[in-house]
Amino acid sequence: MEENQKNEETKIRREEYPMCANHPVMKTLFVGILIFLGAFCAFYVVADWHFKRMFHPRFMPNPRRIERMMEKDMRAMDHTFAKERRFAKKAGEIIHLEQAGNVYKIIIDLRAFDNNANNLQVSTNGNILTINGRSIRKSKHNEQISEFQQNYMFGENVKLKDLTKETEGNHYIITIPIEENEETE
Q1: Which pTM value belongs to this model?
Q2: pLDDT tens for residues 84-107?
């Protein structure tokens, strides 16, 4: 009879535990959830501390310091834009277009292209004249390649097929004749 009583006690004790206590998959699932929640709470607390400290007035930068940093950035930007304006001005000084009598003269400064007329290419397409230039400057540690392209669109009275090219000192001169219009009334 004592054996029957022990069986009933053990059955009662097993029924007191929740169902997942004896199931290995459920145990693993709940342990995983608890680990995730613990890690999330730890991350939240650390992030909260960090942001509270970051936005605390004692740790905020001085407004005057921020203003000085912004002024420094503005000066750097102005310096960069000034360099670009100087470069654009120099680029405009490379090629000049003049009309002299019944011809157009395009005068190109060869110093920008290593004083070599072979670094220039002149091509026509219809009534459009295209000038391509290229120079390569090599130094000990790097190589700088500069390319330049300029297009000119002329009217129907210009004879691009009859253009002439010549070199005079540091200048490459392209001469384009203009056709005289004879109007009869």
Answers
A1: 0.48
A2: 777 666 656 778 888 888 888 988
* Cβ atoms 151, 127 nearer than 8 A: no
How high is the mean pLDDT of the chain?
81
The answer for residues whose C-beta is within 8 angstroms of residue 157's C-beta and 6 or more apart is 178, 179, 181
Please answer whether residues 180 and 118 qualify as being in contact, where contact means their C-beta atoms are separated by less than 8 angstroms. no
Distance (Å, rounded) from C-alpha 88 to C-alpha 134?
A: 16
DSSP secondary structure string, 55-93?
Answer: TSTTTSPPHHHHHHHHHHHHHHHHHHHHHHHHHHHHHHT
Helix intervals (H) in the chain: 2-16, 24-54, 63-92
Residue 28, Cβ neighbours under 10 Å: how many? Answer: 11
Residue 152: is its pLDDT beyond 50?
A: yes
Q: Is the four-CA dihedral 20, 24, 27, 29 of positive or negative sign?
A: negative
Provide the Cα torsion 108, 113, 118, 121; round to 10°.
-60
Number of residues that make up the chain: 185
Are the C-beta atoms of residues 153 and 128 closer than 8 Å to each other?
Answer: yes
The rounded percent of the chain whose pLDDT value lies above 90 is 15
Report the alpha-carbon distance of residue 154 to residue 149 in Å, rounded. 17
